[in-house]
Amino acid sequence: MKRNTILLLVVIYLVFIALGLPDALVGSAWNTIRIDLDVPLGAIGVTTMVAYVMTIFSTYNAPRLLRRFETKTVTFVSVLLTALAILLMSRVTHYWQMVLLAMPLGFGAGAIDLSLNHYIARYYKASHMNYLHSFWGLGVTFGPMVMALTLRDGAWRIGYVIVGLVLLAIAFFVLLSYRLWEHEPAAERHEQHSDIKTMTLLNMKGIKSSLAIVLFYVHIESLAGVFVASYFYMIRGVSSSTAALFTTTYFLALTVGRIVSGAASHKLHPNRLIVIGEVMILIAAILLSMNATVQWYYFVAVALLGIGSGPVFPNMMFMNQRHFPVEHSSKITSLQMVVGYLGFGALTPLAGVAFQETSIRYYPFLILIVSVLLILFTIHFLRLRLSNTTT
What is the pTM (predicted TM-score) of this model? Predict the structure, then answer.
């Protein structure tokens, strides 16, 4: 691999760290933030919903942006926007201000995600896609880790400042790397990001099943990122800093799962890696739903949930250019990610409302139900695609 190609990969991996950094910040610190801003547990769902409505908007329209601008430009502006939003969140005094700042945060995340997923799928191998998402895992692990340290003094705002400054530094590296990116002429951009209608895509064989897979997987990931700390704090009686470590454990394990998946992709087909991961998620959900007297048992269960989560999303993204026509891949990826973000922005807030009205003790059982649905839709999807390749 050429030196410039390696340097660019390093920059892209840094950008995916930037993408992951803000994702679990609010969830890991929510027990302190909600007291500081005087809002109930379920209010986190509003911030989540606003952020992901904007993420959905930018993701859906990202193919249009990529038809007009090169990937490097979209990436730089998006990281910069995210950094500014996080820094300003450290200064909020009312909850509505945090909700307002969730808008640029969500917009930047959606544009980064779609742009780099398509870029890696086009120019690199399956292993690089898994490694790319493992760096997102590093970011989403580092965020709660910083927050866990600052929460020892109740200083959640300092955690936001640290993360915001790291994001600014990454944006600067993207700007310095402009000459390393593949040149994307206007004609090529128009060809790669076709303006196919959404309803036409939905009529393609296997699309609906693939959308369901992404939806339910992302919902499991968001349930872990947003509510795992609250579950162990409120139901298992751990301290707020220990609760934040459960969030860190999940995302650290998810990162490990993606690194292992990247190495395994040299031997195993991406479809098989997806199935292996989903079975591990199901086993982890069963373990979480049981009562145990020792804390390490739950750390093991959460770690297994994270490792199982590792292979699912990156391999689904990578296989788009193999399962479907290449010229439609960015639009298909966009649509999958839009539906996936509904898992964050709609299903997860609904789960928050349900927990508030009943009890968050039902959290493991919700993960169990969703993991079963995930496996059933994956079986259906793979049968459709395999039958399509043999006819």
Answer: 0.76
